[in-house]
Amino acid sequence: MNILAETDRLILREILSSDTSSMYEMYTDPLVLQYLGEKPFVHVQQAEEVIEFIRAQYIANGTGRLAVIKKDTNEFIGWAGLKYVTGSYNDHTNYYEVGYRFIQKYWGKGYATEAARASIDYGFSELMPDKIYAMADSGNKASRVVLEKVGMRYLEKFDLGGIDHDWFEISRTEWDQRRSEQHQ
Question: What is the pTM of this model?
Answer without folding.
Answer: 0.95
